[in-house]
Amino acid sequence: MNMRCILQPKPLAMMWRLLPLLALLLPTSFVRAEELTIAVASNFTAPMREIAARFEAQSDHRVALVFGSSGKIFAQISHGAPYQAFFSADQSKPARLVELGLANGDSRFTYAEGKLALWSRQPDYVDDQGKVLKQGKFNRLALANPKLAPYGAAALEVLQNLQLAEQNRSRWVFGENIAQTYQFVASGNAELGFVALSQILRDGRVSQGSAWVVPEELYNPIRQDAVILKSAEKQSVLREFWRFIQGPEARKIIESYGYGIVAQLPEKSSQSGDAE
Amino acid sequence: MLSDADLTAIWLTLRLATTVTLLLLILGTPLALWLAKTRSFFKGPVSAVVALPLVLPPTVLGFYLLVFMGPSGPMGRLTEALGLGTLPFTFWGLVIASLLYSLPFVVQPIQNAIEAQGGRPSEVAATLRAGPWDRFWHVTLPLAKPGILTASVLGFAHTVGEFGVVLMIGGNIPGETRVVSVQIYDHVEALEYTQAHWLSAAMIGFSFVVLLLLYLLQHRKAAAGMRYGT
Questions:
Q1: Containing structural domain, residue A256
Q2: In 3-state terms, what secondary structure has residue B213?
């Protein structure tokens, strides 16, 4: 990357004259005490945006959301990323953060159970039994990288359970996370792909193209856990947010995107009633 | 140390970088020659387009390539009509992306080398009845050799170091589009930091050696306007 500057023949003297002007811009960015920065696995993007907007509307606080694959967020947190909470796409990474002493174990809860869908952007392409996988006329099948993403691992399980893994393998393309997998299918570059149901569901309906909601017996449930990070465990705003996201309003949003809600342990579910 | 998957990725990366460098030398040299000699109005706009990959984030390039080469894009329609399928997620898709991405690194050094010669050597050859083709092969090109060398090394190294574009259009297929930079990224994402270290260290060593050789060679063959970064 640094080779770019090698190619500049002369130093730009103009830049130096502009520097004082740049300095004027700096003090405008400061962090407000009531701003939360929350890292979220990409499959949960849409519901989280809605939940954060509702929360902001009800309180004066601001919620900044950072989206990415759980693996990347995990690595960032273990290297001191300034997030206050983490909504993972799996259970193991939050658990590991607790083990490492980077997250608060009491705060950990399962906020959603993800559902997998086989999706194409062409209408009437995917039948409601997923037979299209067997007939195999598609050019490519996109899945999230099974090594990195829980939705990818689930997709692989489905293919293995249907005994189609060997037959289709040559046509797989991997998204680095479920958002990129969606993008491969949405752009038509892959005719078929396993995506998160939440990505294609709007108001309880598949909003574009055609899809098969994969029966849950074909893969292990994708339980998604969230934790509050150690650096922020004393922040009252965050506790407020934690109550909100376990409350009925947030749950309704989460369910509207096709996620399942897992019954919580008794002492944790007691927190969820008083969200308003 | 390095697993089979890592070695596959290294081999693929070298294959990609070699293909791209050769193609760029073939396509980039005439372009550089034209840019160096022309007084056309189009010199400005064409130079700007050639330099665009220097300033654009790879994501912009990757995103538009995905759209452009996809089944609804103009190039995707063309390749499908030709029966080649679409280019994203294929080795040749990466080659095309890298041609764009590394273009300025090849064209600019060659162009500089030709411009630094001035018109004189070619004119002298012309008085000795050398035709334009003859002058190009026997005067301009040999004199531009240090520039061509720089161009090959930078083009090769820059393609090896490519990441963002590949991530966006590659689809992470072993042996086809999973290059070293993506493999490292995978290791880091999967929390396999030891493997990530091995491959990353290999990349640093490789890049250092390549650049060191470039500077040593430039030292020997120093010509005006030819020495980058010294």
A1: 35-114+223-272
A2: helix
